[in-house]
Amino acid sequence: MPKLSAQLGAGIEGFSGGLNYHIYPSVRSPYFSFQAWQQGFATEYKASYAGAMFVYRADKLLQAGLGAGYRFHKNPAIEYDSKFILMFNLGLYFPL
Question: What's the number of domains the chain is made of?
Fold first, then answer.
């Protein structure tokens, strides 16, 4: 099985996509990811980010990730203190 994978995600306030490099030859293994995130849609758009993340995956279901992103575009009506953002996630995964 290849060590590369891709992902797409969507939520109430945004969406994301990423290219992943798995440490072991299984989609159930931990991985490093280069991702892009967008916060908000249409009139609620806030900013877009790109960055790297490490995601740990347990043997079954649980995953946790930590990374950093750089803001490359923003809504001009919103002021931010920094171009960088700390990214994290905690959740369940369901491999096909």
Answer: 1
Contact 84, 74 (CB under 8 A): no
Count CA atoms closer than 13 A to 61's CA, side-chain side: 0
**Closest to 70 (Cα-Cα) out of 41, 47, 43:** 47
Four-point Cα dihedral 87, 15, 70, 43, nearest 10: -120
Query: Which domain range does residue 71 map to?
Result: 4-92
Q: How far is CA 87 from CA 34, 37, 53, 71, 90, in A?
A: 12, 10, 8, 12, 11
Q: What is the pLDDT of residues 41-88, one digit of tens each?
A: 888 899 999 999 999 998 888 999 999 999 999 999 999 889 999 999
